[in-house]
Amino acid sequence: MSGVLALCAASLLAPTATQAGEWVGQASYYAHRGRTASGAHVGALTAAHRTLPFGSKVRVTNLHNNRSIVVTVNDRGPFTRGRVIDVSVAAADSLGFRSAGVAHVRVEQVAN
Question: What InterPro entries does its record include (predicted)?
Answer without folding.
Answer: RlpA, RlpA-like_DPBB, RlpA-like_sf, RplA
